[in-house]
Amino acid sequence: MAYRVAIVGATGNVGREMLQTLAERKFPVSDAVALASARSIGREVSFGEDDILKVQDLATFDFKGIDLVLSSPGAKISAEFAPRAARAGAVVIDNTSHWRMDPDVPLVVPEVNPNALAGFGKKNIIANPNCSTIQMVVALKPLHDAAKIKRVVVSTYQSVSGKGKEAMDELFTQTRGIYVNDAMVQEHFTKQIAFNVIPHIDNFMDDGSTKEEWKMVVETKKILDPSIKVHATCVRVPVFIGHAESVNVEFERQLTADEARELLREAPGVSVVDHRVDGGYVTPAEAAGEDSVFVSRLREDPTIENGLAFWCVSDNLRKGAALNAVQIAEALVGRPEFKKAKKAA
Ligand code: 2RA
């Protein structure tokens, strides 16, 4: 069976990666439709090696007959269009923050909580978690199953592609400008991003944390276990693609670094690269374009009881967004609830 698939936000960083990932993984697509806001109508996007799709207007598109929507258009747009697509019978897999904490919307990382997909029919919407949450929970899941996590303290090093194409251009322009002595252009970041780091991603909340940090807290609880305490500091770094995280975990029982390494080696979606020599770890430049969550620098933390620290890196546009969405689609179409809903339609 093949499916009619619409990509919403098809001209953005994640939308283009979704098209690429669908083609690479040979997801059974009978018909692909590229949708975006009115200003992108008529632009062309590639789908696989041979197909070019002309972008159509999201505002007027009729979703009748579409089976699946993969979307990454911005939270406000998603709030408006997703229920419209769902009413027309499509299942929306949405990458924005709008639906993630809705109790009637599953928030899914297929390696971690695939069974949450059973609830997709409540709204016909499934949420894709935030990029920084996805890579962390993929690495935490096998460790939590083995030794039950009490608390996580994480610091992120997030690439500019998480903020979109214009943000990538700003890093490029500022870097070049510094070398050739051009005036500094600063539109998309609150401070200079070239040759700098910025401890601020998304809006500030009343308690002094940022929304990106809040997302890591509440999404980890929803996906993995509500009893896990998470404290996050999210930082933007002058890297184009690939988010890195320094993760410190406190468990209920002791888990040695060797045990953790063995568990992670067996875990789906994880690649362990952990050699205690120069270069024996993975950096964002090496993770870009790859599907895995890479775990390095595993070591016990003797400053707390049952403490463990590690470094993890992943391509934020792939596992952090497009790949996770396509994996959700793959898992969904294999589920009996989905097949039953399709038959009844
Ligand atoms: C970022 N978390 O990196 C966002 C993207 N979802 O800014």
Descriptive report:
It is an enzyme of class 1 (oxidoreductase). Keywords: Amino-acid biosynthesis, Diaminopimelate biosynthesis, Lysine biosynthesis, Methionine biosynthesis, NADP, Oxidoreductase, Threonine biosynthesis. Catalyzes the NADPH-dependent formation of L-aspartate-semialdehyde (L-ASA) by the reductive dephosphorylation of L-aspartyl-4-phosphate. The protein has 345 residues and is of the alpha/beta class. It has 2 domains: 150 residues, Rossmann fold; 146 residues, Dihydrodipicolinate Reductase, domain 2 (2-Layer Sandwich), CATH 3.30.360.10. The protein contains 9 helices and 14 strands. A 6-stranded parallel β-sheet has the order 5-2-1-6-7-8, with helices on both faces. A 6-stranded mixed β-sheet has the order 10-9-11-14-13-12. Helix 2 links the parallel strand 6 and strand 7. Helix 1 packs across helix 8, helix 3 packs across helix 5 and helix 3 crosses helix 8. The radius of gyration is 20 Å and the shape is globular. The two termini are 15 Å apart. The structure holds 3-amino-D-alanine.
CATH topology of the largest domain: Rossmann fold
Strand content range: 15-25%
Which class of the largest domain in CATH terms?
Answer: Alpha Beta
Across the major sheet, the strand order is 5-2-1-6-7-8
Average pLDDT level: 97
Summarize the biggest pleated sheet: 6 strands, parallel
Shape verdict: globular
CATH superfamily grouping of the largest domain: NAD(P)-binding Rossmann-like Domain
Q: So how many helices? A: 9
Q: Number of domains in the coordinates?
A: 2
Number of E strands: 14
Note the gap between the termini. Answer: 15 Å
> What proportion of the residues is helical, as a percent range?
25-40%
Which residues form runs of ≥5 with pLDDT under 50?
none
Q: List each distinct ligand once.
A: 3-amino-D-alanine
Cα-based radius of gyration, to the nearest Å: 20 Å
Protein name: Aspartate-semialdehyde dehydrogenase
Domain Semialdehyde dehydrogenase NAD-binding: 4-120
Active site: 131 (acyl-thioester intermediate), 243 (proton acceptor)
Family: Belongs to the aspartate-semialdehyde dehydrogenase family.
